C-alpha cells in the first residue's frame, strides 16, 4: 500500500462539511478501532439531550432493531465490541460511538471486519429504529430512567464525586459547570418526538471527527466511509473555545454531608493557562512537581511523611485551565491536611523545588506520553485532545516541549495559580 | 544459560523461559514496537495465607489478617529511603498489588529498562522494616481501609464472599481491618517474608520490546540464593459445601441499590489446564444465560431491572471458586428470581448448540484483543501461571472445548441451592 504513515501518527484524509476523517496507522496491535465523535458546546439546553441520544441510538437500528440483534452481530464479528457515550473536554460535550474488532488476519480467510464494523456504526447513527417516524417511545422512556439513575449514581464513587463537585462549584456560572450527562430536571420534558427533532439537527449541524486506527489505505477508508460522508449537512456549528480567566473573587468553601467513613478534601484552582497557551508545558511540569506522582510534594508530604492519607494528588483540566487537588483523609484531620497541602503550593512558589523533584516530573511525563502510543484509545484520545485544543503536537513534539521546560519555568507558573474553591465531603455526624 | 521457548504461531506470540539456580522461574514475552516495558516480580502468597507451617517448624503459625498486603507496602522502604524515589528519578512508576493468593511488584518504563529492573530485583529481595515505619504505615493503610469501607461495589463483593464462605479466608478483606492491622509488628512481617519470598515460590515476568537474553542475564547475576527449596505448608480451615448464608444486606451512601450475586462452586483442588477449561465453560454459560445476546438480558433491561452496569465473571483458584453477577438495580431480589427462572427453564429445554458455537468464537476474539496490552498480558499471565498453566493455553481451550463438557458444567455449577445474594441499599439520609 502507498502513502504509508509512520506508526502512531495521525493523518487527515478527508475534510468537508464539518466531517473530518483521520487515519492512525498502528501495526503492532491485534485489533483495529473506529471512533466517531460528534462535538457540541456544553449547554443546559442540549446536555441532557446529547447524553440521551447515544443511549437511545444504541438500542437499535433499522438493520439491527434490538439489543439482542446487535449483540448477536457483535458476537458473529469475532467478539467485536461496540459502545457509545458522552464526555466533556473543556466546555465541549463530545458524543462518542466506538467499535473495536480483531484484525482480519485473526478473523480467518476473507474477512473484511472494518467494512462490516463501519457499516454497522453508520447504520446505527443514521438509520435508527423508528416508530411512526420518531424514536420508539418505550426506548426513550427507559433510557431517560437509566440516565436519571446514572446521574444520581455519581455519589457512589466518592473520590471522583469529590473532584467533580469541586470543579462544578468553581464553574457554577460557566458552561464548564454543566455535568456532561445533563441534569435530572432537564430530562423530564424530553420525549420521542423532541429527541428526534434534536437528532435531526445533531446529524446535520454538529462537527464530526472520525478516527480510524489500523493498517489501511486512505482511498480504501474513503470508499468505506462514503455513505457516512454523504449525510446531508447544513449550518455546521462553530464551537467556541472556553473562557480561561475569570475576575478575582472570594474563595468559596463548600461542605457536603453524607453517610461516609472517610472525608474527601478537594481544592480547586484556576491556572490561567490552557493546552494552547505557550506556558502549558511548564504547567504540566509544575503539576508534576506538586502532585503528579510518587515523587511529588503532595504524595511525599501528605502520605509518606504525615501518614494522613492513602492518596493525595493534583490533576489538570487542560482545556479549561483548571487544577484540582484531592485527598482521602480521616475527617478529624481536615485542617491539618489542608495546611500541609497549601504549604506545598507555597514551597513551589518560593522556589523550593529540588533537582530530584524537577527531573522526576519531566521523566514521568515523558513516560506517560510515550506510553499513550501503546493503546489505540490512548493514541486517539491524544489526537482528539490536540484537535479540541487547537494544537498540533505529535508525541515527539510534545516530548521535546516537556524536556525544554526549565526548573525556573515550572516555578514561574506558580504566579498564575489562583485558589478558587475548597470542597469537603464529610460525614453526617 | 538454558533458555526455552514456546511459540504460539496462530497468534504471533512467543514465551521465553529460564530457571535460576535459586529456583526462581523467569519469563519474557517480547512485544515488538511497544514503548512500554512492563516487569513483574511476584510471589505465590496473598491475603488467604494467614495460617501456615514455616519450613522447619513443627507447629503452625497464625498471622493477623491483612499482613500480606501490609508487607507489600513495607517492601518499598529501603535502608536509604523509599525505593519509589529511585524509580521516580528514572521516570518510571513502580506499583504493587496484593490478591487472595499472590503479591505482585511491578513497574513499567519506556527508558533505562536495565536500571529499573535492577531496582525491582533489589528491593523485593531486601526488606528493610523498622518498628517506626510499621507504625506510620498503619495510618496510611488505615485510610486505604476506610476508602474501601465507602466503596459500595467492593462491599457488595466482600459481603457476597462472606455469604458463600463460613471459614475460607477468601471472605476476609485483603487489607484486613483497622483492628487486625494494629496487631502487625516488624517481627511477624519478617516471618511472613522469610517464608513466602523464597525464590522458588516466586516468578519474574517481563513483557515488552526487550532482548530475552539480556533480561535473563540480569536475573542470573541479580538473584540471591536463599538455600534449598523447602515446602511451605499452607493451612486452610474446613469449608462446608453449603452456603454460609443465602442473603446479606448493608446500607451505604449510594443513590440506588446495587447487588452482587452468584453461585458457590464446590470444585476442590482443580489445577492447571482443567482450571482454565472450567473457567471458560462457566463464562461461556454465563454469556449464554445472561449475556447481551440472551433473551434474559433483553427482558431484565427492558423491565428496568438492570442497566449498563450489569456484569458477570467467574473466579477459580485451588481452594475456592464462584461465579458472580451484579450491578445497580431497583429490585435485586427480582433479578435473582428472573435469573433462577431462566436457569430452570434452560435446564428443561437444554442448551442451544448454535449460541454455544457463536459465543465460543466471540470469546476467543475477545481473548486475542486483550493481548494488545502489556499490562493485561502481565496481569493475566501471573494469575494463570500460579494455577500451573500458561496464559496462551486459553487459545487451545477455546478451540477444543466441547458442547458436551459445557453441558456437564452447566448442571454442576448452576445449582440454585448454592446461589447467594448480597445487596447494598441506600442509607435513608444520603
Textual characterization of the structure:
The complex is a heterodimer of chains A (429) and B (430). Chain A has helices spanning 44-57, 67-76, 104-107, 113-126, 137-152, 158-170, 184-187, 192-205, 218-224, 226-229, 280-291, 297-305, 334-349, 355-372, 376-389, 395-403, 407-412, and strands spanning 10-16, 19-24, 31-41, 81-89, 92-102, 130-131, 134-135, 208-213, 252-258, 263-270, 309-317, 322-329, 418-427. The longest helix of chain A has 18 residues, at 355-372. Chain A has 17 helices and 13 strands. In chain A, the strands form three sheets. A six-stranded mixed β-sheet of chain A has the order 1-2-8-3-5-4, with helices on both faces. In chain A, strands 9-13-10-12-11 form a five-stranded mixed β-sheet, with helices on both faces. Chain A has a two-stranded antiparallel ribbon with strand order 6-7. Chain A folds into two domains: 10-229, 2-Layer Sandwich (Cytochrome Bc1 Complex, Chain A, domain 1); 252-427, Cytochrome Bc1 Complex, Chain A, domain 1. In chain A, helix 1 crosses helix 8 (192-205), helix 12 (297-305) runs antiparallel to helix 13 and helix 14 packs antiparallel against helix 16 (395-403). Chain A is of the alpha+beta class and 429 residues long. Chain A starts with 9 loop residues before the first strand and ends with a strand. Chain B folds into two domains: 4-227, 2-Layer Sandwich (Cytochrome Bc1 Complex, Chain A, domain 1), CATH 3.30.830; 247-426, Cytochrome Bc1 Complex, Chain A, domain 1, CATH 3.30.830. Helix content of chain B is 42%, strand content 21%. Chain B has helices spanning 67-75, 83-89, 113-125, 131-149, 152-164, 178-182, 186-196, 212-222, 273-290, 295-302, 332-349, 353-370, 374-385, 393-400, 403-413, and strands at residues 4-8, 13-19, 25-30, 37-43, 51-53, 61-62, 77-78, 81-82, 93-98, 103-109, 202-208, 233-234, 247-252, 258-263, 311-316, 321-328, 419-426. In chain B, helix 1 (67-75) packs across helix 7 (186-196), helix 3 runs parallel beside helix 8 and helix 9 packs across helix 12. Chain B starts with a strand and ends with a strand. The mean pLDDT of chain B is 95. At the A-B interface, helix 2, strand 5, helix 5, strand 11 and helix 14 of A face helix 2, helix 4, helix 10 and helix 12 of B.
Amino acid at each position: 500500500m502507498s502513502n504509508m504513515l509512520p506508526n502512531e501518527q495521525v493523518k487527515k484524509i478527508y475534510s468537508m462539511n464539518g466531517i473530518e476523517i483521520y487515519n492512525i496507522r498502528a501495526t503492532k496491535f491485534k485489533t483495529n478501532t473506529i471512533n466517531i465523535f460528534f462535538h457540541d458546546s456544553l449547554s443546559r439546553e442540549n446536555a441532557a439531550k446529547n447524553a440521551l441520544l447515544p443511549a437511545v441510538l444504541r438500542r437499535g437500528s433499522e438493520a439491527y432493531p434490538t439489543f439482542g440483534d446487535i449483540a448477536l452481530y457483535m458476537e458473529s464479528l469475532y467478539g467485536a465490541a461496540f459502545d457509545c457515550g458522552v464526555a466533556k473536554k473543556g466546555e465541549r460535550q463530545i458524543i462518542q460511538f466506538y467499535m473495536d474488532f480483531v484484525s482480519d488476519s485473526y478473523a480467518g480467510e476473507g474477512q473484511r471486519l472494518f467494512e462490516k464494523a463501519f457499516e454497522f456504526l453508520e447504520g446505527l447513527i443514521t438509520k435508527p429504529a423508528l416508530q411512526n417516524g420518531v424514536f420508539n417511545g418505550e426506548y426513550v422512556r427507559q433510557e431517560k430512567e437509566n440516565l436519571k439513575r446514572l446521574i444520581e449514581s455519581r455519589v457512589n464513587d466518592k473520590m471522583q464525586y469529590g473532584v467533580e463537585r469541586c470543579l462544578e462549584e468553581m464553574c457554577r456560572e460557566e458552561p464548564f459547570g454543566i455535568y456532561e450527562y445533563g441534569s435530572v430536571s432537564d430530562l423530564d420534558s424530553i420525549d420521542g418526538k423532541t429527541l428526534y427533532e434534536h437528532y435531526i439537527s445533531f446529524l446535520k449541524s454538529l462537527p464530526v471527527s472520525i478516527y480510524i486506527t489500523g493498517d489501511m489505505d486512505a482511498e480504501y477508508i474513503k470508499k468505506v466511509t462514503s455513505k457516512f460522508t454523504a449525510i446531508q449537512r447544513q449550518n455546521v456549528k462553530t464551537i467556541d473555545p472556553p473562557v480561561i480567566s475569570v475576575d478575582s473573587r472570594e474563595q468559596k468553601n463548600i461542605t457536603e454531608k453524607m453517610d461516609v467513613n472517610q472525608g474527601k478534601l478537594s481544592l480547586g484552582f484556576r491556572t490561567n493557562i490552557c493546552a494552547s497557551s505557550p506556558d502549558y508545558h511548564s504547567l504540566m511540569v509544575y503539576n508534576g512537581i506538586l502532585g503528579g506522582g510518587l515523587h511529588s510534594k503532595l504524595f511525599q508530604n501528605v502520605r509518606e511523611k504525615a501518614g494522613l492519607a492513602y492518596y493525595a494528588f493534583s490533576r489538570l483540566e487542560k482545556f479549561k485551565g483548571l487544577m484540582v487537588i484531592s485527598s482521602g483523609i480521616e475527617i478529624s484531620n481536615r485542617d491539618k491536611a489542608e495546611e500541609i497541602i497549601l504549604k506545598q503550593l507555597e514551597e513551589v512558589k518560593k522556589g523550593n523545588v529540588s533537582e530530584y523533584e524537577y527531573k522526576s516530573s519531566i521523566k514521568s511525563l515523558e513516560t506517560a506520553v510515550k506510553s499513550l502510543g501503546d493503546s489505540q484509545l490512548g493514541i486517539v484520545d491524544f489526537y482528539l485532545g490536540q484537535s479540541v485544543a487547537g494544537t498540533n503536537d505529535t508525541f515527539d513534539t510534545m516530548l521535546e516541549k516537556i524536556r525544554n521546560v526549565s526548573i525556573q519555568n515550572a516555578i514561574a507558573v506558580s504566579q498564575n495559580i489562583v485558589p478558587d474553591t475548597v470542597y469537603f465531603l464529610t460525614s453526617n455526624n | 544459560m538454558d533458555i526455552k521457548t514456546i511459540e504460539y504461531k496462530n497468534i504471533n506470540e512467543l514465551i521465553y523461559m529460564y530457571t535460576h539456580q535459586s529456583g526462581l522461574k523467569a519469563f519474557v514475552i517480547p512485544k515488538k514496537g511497544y514503548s512500554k516495558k512492563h516487569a513483574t516480580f511476584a510471589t505465590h502468597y496473598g491475603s488467604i495465607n494467614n495460617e501456615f507451617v514455616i519450613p522447619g517448624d513443627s507447629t503452625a503459625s497464625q498471622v493477623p489478617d491483612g499482613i500480606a498486603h501490609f508487607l507489600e507496602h513495607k517492601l518499598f522502604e529501603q535502608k536509604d529511603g523509599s525505593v519509589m524515589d529511585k524509580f521516580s528519578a528514572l521516570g518510571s512508576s513502580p506499583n504493587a498489588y496484593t490478591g487472595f493468593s499472590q503479591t505482585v511488584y511491578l513497574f513499567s518504563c519506556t527508558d533505562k529498562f536495565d536500571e529499573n529492573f535492577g531496582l525491582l530485583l533489589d528491593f523485593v529481595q531486601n526488606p528493610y522494616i523498622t518498628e517506626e515505619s510499621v507504625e506510620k504505615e498503619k495510618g496510611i493503610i488505615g485510610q486505604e481501609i476506610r476508602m474501601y469501607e465507602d466503596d459500595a461495589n467492593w462491599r457488595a463483593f466482600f459481603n457476597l464472599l462472606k455469604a458463600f464462605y463460613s471459614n475460607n479466608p477468601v471472605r476476609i478483606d485483603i487489607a484486613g481491618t483497622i483492628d487486625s492491622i494494629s496487631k502487625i509488628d516488624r517481627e511477624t512481617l519478617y516471618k511472613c517474608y522469610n517464608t513466602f519470598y523464597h525464590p522458588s515460590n516466586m516468578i519474574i515476568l517481563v513483557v515488552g520490546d526487550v532482548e530475552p537474553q539480556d533480561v535473563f542475564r540480569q536475573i542470573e547475576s541479580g538473584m540471591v540464593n536463599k538455600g534449598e527449596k523447602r515446602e511451605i505448608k499452607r493451612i486452610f480451615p474446613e469449608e462446608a459445601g453449603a452456603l454460609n448464608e443465602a442473603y446479606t444486606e448493608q446500607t451505604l451512601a449510594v443513590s440506588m441499590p446495587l447487588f452482587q450475586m452468584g453461585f458457590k462452586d464446590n470444585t476442590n483442588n482443580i489445577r492447571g489446564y482443567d482450571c482454565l477449561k472450567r473457567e471458560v465453560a462457566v463464562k461461556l454459560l454465563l454469556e449464554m444465560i445472561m449475556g447481551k445476546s440472551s433473551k434474559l438480558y433483553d427482558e431484565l433491561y427492558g423491565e428496568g431491572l438492570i442497566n449498563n452496569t450489569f456484569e458477570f465473571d467467574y473466579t477459580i483458584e485451588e481452594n475456592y471458586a464462584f461465579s458472580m453477577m451484579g450491578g445497580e438495580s431497583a429490585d435485586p431480589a427480582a433479578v435473582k428470581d428472573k435469573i433462577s427462572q431462566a436457569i430452570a427453564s434452560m435446564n428443561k429445554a437444554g442448551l442451544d448448540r448454535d449460541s454455544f458455537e457463536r459465543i465460543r468464537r466471540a470469546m476467543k476474539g475477545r481473548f486475542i484483543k486483550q493481548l494488545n496490552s502489556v499490562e493485561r498480558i502481565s496481569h493475566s499471565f501471573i494469575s494463570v501461571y500460579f494455577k500451573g498453566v500458561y496464559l496462551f493455553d486459553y487459545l487451545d481451550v477455546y478451540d477444543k472445548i466441547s458442547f458436551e463438557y459445557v453441558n456437564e458444567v452447566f448442571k454442576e455449577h448452576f445449582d440454585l441451592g448454592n446461589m447467594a445474594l448480597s445487596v447494598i441499599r441506600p442509607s435513608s439520609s444520603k
